[in-house]
Amino acid sequence: MVEIRKQASLNLSNVRHSFLILSDEVHDEADEVASILHKAHKLRTFLLHSSITRVPYNFFHHLRCLRALDLSQTRLNKLPQSVEQLKHLRYLDLSYTHIEELPELVSNCRNLQTLRLNACARLYKLPRGMRKMIFMRHLELEDTHMLKFLRQGVGRLTELRTLTDFIVGGGDEGCKCGELKNLNHLQGRLRIIGLENVRSTDEAREAELYKKQHVHALILDYDSIGGGLLDEEVKRRENVLEILQPNTNLKEFEIWNYEGSKLPSWIEDPVFSNLVKVNLMNCSKCKKLPGLGKLPSLKCLIIEGMEEEEWELRGGDGEVMPSLLQLEIRDCPKLKALPYNLPPLLRKLALNITNDGMSLEGPLPVLPNLNHLVIWYSPELTSFPCGWLGQLKALQTREIYRCPMLGSLPEELPHLTMLRELKITCCPLLVDRCRDGGEDWDNIAHIPCIKIFT
After folding, report:
1. 224-259 in b/e burial notation, b at 16+ Cβ within 10 A?
2. Which of 46, 246, 250, 432 is the most exposed place for a label (fewest CB within 10 A)?
3. Nearest C-alpha neighbor of 154 from the set 115, 197, 99
4. How far, in Å, CA of 260 to CA of 222, rounded?
5. Gap between the Cα atoms of 251 and 106, Å rounded
6. Structural domain boundaries of the chain?
7. CATH classification (class only), 338-454
């Protein structure tokens, strides 16, 4: 490991593993790196920490033994075609760079097993020849939002263990859902993007998601187009989602931007007894919440942007999500109240409270173990309802986020003796009241950690 502050003369002729750190004092970083690596014929691992924006064409000519190359978090915007000379390369990390496309010749690196392209904000296409990289095991594309399609042939990479994002669509060049069929070694997290481009249930069935027994977290993501859909299109999306039933080993399940009127029936099937997290994000047209009380292991439930939904969890059948520890409900304007029989194990609760929507009136759940309460984006809330907060004797963390009209803190706050942290963010009327010497200071002075963000 070497930090280079000015022009350096290093002999790397016998070095196998190198981590170079270039400071801002180096005048021409690209030429400096090239000169340092000129005789590094035996180098196996090369990691670079630098603001370098380019590498010379002959950058890789002397690195033909290289196995691992990490150029992540540089400002690199282009990779030279000479990368094809790295015949032994197993690991390539270009995450957090400015690169826009990979050269076609990178697909000649047939032995490449790991390709990391996370958070490449400008990357918009991958090489056509990626189908030839049959030894690929890990392809990471998280937060690379400009990439709108994967090349046809990804389904041939049957050794893949990690594929963070599978993008459906792209016309004649892009992948269809069926290319997932033979990727049965996938494990961990899989996000399928562009499900609105799945044209039929037959195409969805080809994916055979139920065979992906090592995929433990599944995200089904639609591109939210806004506006109303024709009834025929809504029905097609509902049918496709019903077919995309995952393996019962699934532990986490999320749906984003879905515009069907109902969620798949399999989500409430007791065979999904391993599910510990469900996230329903912007399912704006759904009118009914599935019977999630049948999921005995469910610990985290997040519901956001369900504009048509009204949740009533009552009855005497014991469907009460007995293991639930975290519940977050946001932007559900028709939801008037919390279910009164929420499980007593609940530790974290995040919700909107509004004057005409969610309120804390009527029968309230008894939550003796709740230690984290978040009041999130309640623009019309002017004051807290009295009574309920005082019951939360185990409360340790209280967050109030984006409540611009909230003028005071609840009266019960001084009685919450377990409270250890109070966070107030973007609540302008509360800021002066809660600072040292403000009107509410005496009510919160006992709290060890107070964080106020304007």
Report:
1. eeeeeeeeeebebbbebbbbbbbbeebebbbbbbbb
2. 432
3. 115
4. 11
5. 36
6. 1-147, 165-311+319-335, 338-454
7. alpha beta
Phi-psi region of 335 (alpha: psi -120 to 50; beta: other; left: phi over 0): beta
How far apart CA 271 and CA 42 sit, in angstroms, is: 54
Residue type, 328: E
User: How far apart, in whole angstroms, are the C-alpha atoms of residue 190 and residue 218?
Assistant: 5
Instruction: Let me know: does 20 contact 12? Beta carbons within 8 Å.
Output: no
Q: How far apart are CA 114 and CA 268, in angstroms?
A: 36
For 222-340, strand residue ranges (E) read 252-256, 277-281, 300-304, 326-330
- Lookup: tokens for 375: 């009041």
Could you identify the residue written with the tokens 């049965």?
A: 184
pLDDT in single tens digits along all 454 residues of the chain: 888 877 667 788 888 999 988 877 776 777 778 778 888 889 999 999 888 888 888 888 888 899 999 999 999 999 988 898 899 999 999 999 999 999 999 999 999 999 999 999 999 999 999 999 999 999 999 999 999 999 999 999 999 999 999 999 988 888 999 999 999 999 999 999 999 999 899 999 999 999 999 999 999 999 765 567 788 888 999 999 999 999 999 999 999 999 888 899 998 888 888 999 999 999 888 887 777 877 889 999 999 888 777 665 544 445 578 899 999 988 887 776 677 778 889 999 998 876 555 555 556 677 889 999 998 887 777 877 666 777 888 999 999 998 888 888 887 888 888 999 999 999 888 888 887 778 888 888 888 998 988 8
Fold exhibited by the domain 165-311+319-335: 3.80.10
Fold of the domain spanning 1-147: 3.80.10
Report how far Cα 107 is from the mean position of its chain's Cα atoms.
Answer: 28
- Confirm if 336 and 360 have CB atoms less than 8 A apart: no
Same fold, 1-147 and 338-454: yes
**Would you give the distance in Å from CA 233 to the centre of its chain?**
27
Do residues 334 and 308 lie in contact, with contact meaning Cβ atoms separated by under 8 Å? yes
Answer positive or negative: Cα dihedral of 253, 259, 262, 265.
negative
Nearest in space to 387 (alpha carbons), one of 364, 419, 357: 364
Instruction: Please compute Rg for the chain using Cα positions.
Output: 27
